[in-house]
Write a structure and sequence with these properties.
By secondary structure, the protein is an alpha/beta fold. It contains 22 helices and 17 strands.
């Protein structure tokens, strides 16, 4: 039995949303479960940037791999791609079983079966146990040899399947209480996105997580299981991770235990996490920082108590301000998620969000126009009032902005809300960076230097460096690099300052800071390369040649060595 798991593309191209181009972690779990059981399984990511013709790539994979089952991970933005690919698969391999899973088919089974004649089965919600039982029947392990026979499927909870002209729903599946029973995806694949838990105790009206996971009780991997997952991936060369739990710090003791294991293992990794402002404290944040965490994202959503109540997240602003200051103080980037265009949104509520933004002083921010999907309480409310039905998804749209079902909002108005929030953030970001107050804990000083130099590089050479909305990014970067070195010698800070001085043709200060950096990091090729280029700018080619020669095995160094040698030969002629 061969399975092919597919991550389709979104309807609209993704330029800045990197999360839309990676394989959902759930596909890795499903494929690992199949491989661990003895079946053949492969994953095809059609959303990654280098796939120019997803249909052709998919067709070639089906023709070469001959899958018996093709499983698509489907969201509302990818649903049209998934259905188109299902048609392609049916043409190439008529007897292949087409399975959809993920949030969109879980909440809209009737829509998918009416819109996609090629669809055979939907796996609802958590899929490992349900899919395995389905595959065992299709493989004939219960006496069935025809993969299109649905007789035994009715006894597998968690399925919706097509049986002739009838659609059968077998009801909800039992949730896996012990997540450690699942196979380690890291044994078979290399990836960066992880999750230690499933579910969320929150009740956000814009989020489908509570209904998708079937309960508000959060289930966890043990710290031992999760650490093993990270260690195995680190051994494969992965050095940065995105931990995408709805609230990573929900079980504080579990996170502390994991962090202790990471610190003891000294894996030299970094990671991002998502949490809630009411679920962090200084000792926990310091432990996370020492274990490699460099950014925590918080769903702030709004500064208006009225709006937050309607979004199901009535957390006091004071807790948000406290959490952001504590996160930055521990040496991690606090990133804010804001939502605008919510039910009841006005200029006054947006001003409350702007006021909160100024208090939070986030070092990263994402601003989302509120959209609604099946599986959320907001969507259910819109359905009950007759403002929307699942028929809307037959249109060529990715999502449903809330303003389209709200008589008191329109596009121009909501766009102005978003522009006001973004302008405030980018106008004041240098000020937020200048106001960072770090925890006075000597054990954190090396991490403080690392944090400040990372942030400095974002202003000098990263996303903030090319953003026209940010004033004097180089000045902010220089201040951050210098502040980093006031805490601890840091390679990135030395290099960042050297490159800034070089950029502004300040060769003597550049050489001075690079020499200081070399005293601490004599084996750094990057410091030597920057120093060599500075010397070349001063027409000191002999000195540059002597500086660069010890690193001639590196191709980028050899390029500059050749220039030096040519200049010296010209001088001798």
């Amino acid at each position: 039995m061969k399975l092919l798991f597919v991550n389709p593309v979104c309807l609209d191209p993704r330029i800045t949303d990197a999360d839309a181009t990676v394989v959902p972690v759930g596909l890795y779990y499903l494929a690992a479960q199949m491989l661990n059981t003895g079946y053949e399984a492969a994953i095809l990511n059609l959303a990654q940037a280098d796939v120019k013709d997803p249909e052709a790539v998919f067709a070639a994979a089906v023709e070469s791999q001959h899958p018996d089952v093709i499983g698509f991970s489907v969201t509302n933005p990818t649903r049209l791609s998934a259905m188109s690919l299902a048609r392609t698969a049916r043409q190439i391999r008529p007897r292949t079983v087409i399975v959809f899973g993920g949030p969109a088919p879980t909440f809209m089974a009737d829509y998918f079966f009416s819109a996609c004649p090629e669809l055979d089965v939907i796996v609802k919600g958590e899929g490992e146990q349900t899919l395995l039982a389905l595959v065992q029947i299709l493989a004939g392990e219960t006496g069935k040899t025809d993969p299109k026979i649905c007789l035994d499927l009715s006894r597998i909870p968690g399925l919706v399947f097509r049986d002739g002209n009838k659609i059968t729903d077998t009801g909800p599946a039992l949730l896996i209480q012990d997540l450690d029973r699942l196979a380690h995806p890291s044994r078979y694949f290399a990836f960066q996105h992880l999750a230690m838990s499933r579910g969320c105790p929150g009740a956000c009206t814009f989020c489908g997580s509570p209904l998708f996971w079937g309960t508000r009780n959060v289930r966890f991997h043990s710290p031992e299981w999760f650490f093993e997952e990270i260690r195995t991936l680190a051994d494969k060369g992965i050095s940065h991770f995105y931990i995408s739990d709805d609230t990573f710090t929900m079980d504080r003791d579990r996170v502390m235990d994991l962090c202790r294991k990471l610190i003891h293992a000294d894996l030299n990794i970094t990671w991002h996490a998502i949490s809630r402002v009411d679920r962090v404290d200084p000792p926990l944040l310091a432990m996370m920082r020492k274990a490699g965490c460099i950014q925590i994202s918080y769903g702030v959503e709004s500064g208006s108590d009225t709006i937050k109540k309607r979004l199901g997240k009535p957390v006091p602003n004071s807790l948000a301000v406290q959490a952001f200051r504590r996160t930055a103080a521990a040496g991690m980037i606090p990133r804010a998620y804001f939502i605008y265009g919510s039910p009841g949104e006005t200029k006054n509520t947006i001003q409350e969000s702007i006021d909160l933004l100024m208090q939070l002083q986030p070092l990263g921010a994402i601003f989302y126009m509120l959209v609604t999907f099946p599986g959320t309480r907001l969507y259910e409310q819109a359905q009950k009032t007759g403002r929307v039905s699942d028929e809307i998804w037959h249109k060529k749209i990715e999502d449903l902005p809330w303003f389209e079902v709200d008589d008191h909002l329109d596009f121009d108005q909501v766009k102005q809300f978003g522009n006001a929030l973004r302008s405030t953030f980018y106008d004041h970001l240098p000020e937020f960076a200048a106001n960072i107050e770090l925890m006075n804990d000597p054990s954190l000083y090396p991490y403080h230097a690392d944090f400040l130099s990372r942030l400095g590089m974002t202003f000098s050479h990263g996303d903030y460096s090319t953003d026209d909305r940010i004033r004097n990014p180089d000045g902010t970067a220089q201040t951050l690099f210098e502040k980093a070195l006031s805490y601890h010698p840091d390679l990135r800070a030395f290099l960042g300052l050297g490159m800034l001085f070089l950029k502004h043709k300040q060769m003597d200060p550049a050489l001075q800071i690079l020499d200081q950096g070399q005293n601490h990091f004599p084996g750094s090729k990057d410091l030597v390369l920057c120093k060599g280029i500075c010397l070349m700018n001063q027409h000191r080619f002999a000195g540059a040649l002597a500086c660069l020669s010890p690193f001639e095995q590196h191709p980028d160094v050899r390029y500059y060595l050749a220039i030096c040698q040519k200049e010296l030969e010209t001088d001798h002629e």
